[in-house]
Fold:
Amino acid sequence: MSKDSLLAAQYFASTEQKGYQQLTSSFSCFLFLFQNHLYLAITSDSTQKANHSGKLLRHDSLNDTWDEVYQLPLLNEDSSAYLTKASKSNISQNDLIHHNKIFSEIAIFKGKSDNAPMLYLSLISSLESQLLRTETCESFHVIPKAKVEQYRLSFRQLYPFQNKLYASCLGRLTGEAEKWEDLPIVYVSDDPALGLWQCTSLLGFGDSNNKAISQMVAFNDCLYVGTVNLEQGFQVWKTQVIEPFSYSWKQVISKGAYRYTMNEFVSSMVVFKGNLYVASGRALLAENNTNEFNTAPPELIRIYPDDSWDLIVGTPKFTPDGLKVPLSAMGPGFDDLEQSNFQCLLVHDNYLYVGVQKPGRFQMWLSEDGEIWETIPLEGITHYPQVELCAAMSTPLGLTLVFDTIHGQTVDNSLSNTLGVNGLEIWIGKEH
Structure:
């Protein structure tokens, strides 16, 4: 690994806080590029300040500041309503939360009714779901509600692939007006502006233990999806698109890559140098205190174009394909039992990056070949008593990271007794 490249990747600087200095404790957070601008979509988890419903911020590269360009309208209060959290680490949990809309997913796509590539933005709330589209990010048009059979769909994920927009969903069952449930079906549309969607898969791909779809990515001219399976471990499925709307799904990985319930769901997937990298997670890790749960750090596997696979970071294991040992010679969580989750998996400047969340701390690892790994010192970020990654993206400005931080001092050096306030900070890794 080039020392010069590694040092360049280590240089992170915080952007000015104009436009988001009042936002605290983010609930959902997305970075995206649209029309040569970098945007941040954010919703606050604060129930005390109603003006924190949701905002779109645009980066001003000349002044290195963030300016608000859109704010979500508020909804009427409905304190009894429930909403399934959009957090990938808590997919199976229903939580009583603020009634206002939150950003669920964002995609850039040109459908049959679109004159140009449009930004599609999915919103969910305890009262309703909406799919919006815009050409400017300053005004939005509400798309007719998608309805398939008994489900009224709310989109958890949106993924453009081969001139179609794919979605994984939350579905509200008929007669259950106050409860959202994960709907492990992949839907597709070539004209989402008209609200026209079709089903491409069986519920849970025919397995009732698949409770949700957590990830989608295009690889080797196929669409790959990762599931949440709390009983047997995550699965990875793929399909080729046969025109016009014909799909045949094939299982690529099962039983949590033979770590079973120690790998409950796919937390991230990314294509790097011709192969697909898949990171695991455990949905209930944060809610359990047993030794079994606390010693289940994540794994990383690599899937090849022929759908064979290798273990990159994880526990050696016997599989139907023989013994799998980690090619990095590192165990789960990069040999750290405190690593709770791989928060991000992305490619930037020909390096593969993995962001790892520890209790109150965040680490970034990078590799040039997917097998030899080094950590990046994040000196300016890690001095806070508590840090959690909210969003990460490779951008023309550099590797961009959004953190939820605790500003203040700790009591008796205990992370569980922190004095201070939460605040968002946006850091961009730039070359010297």
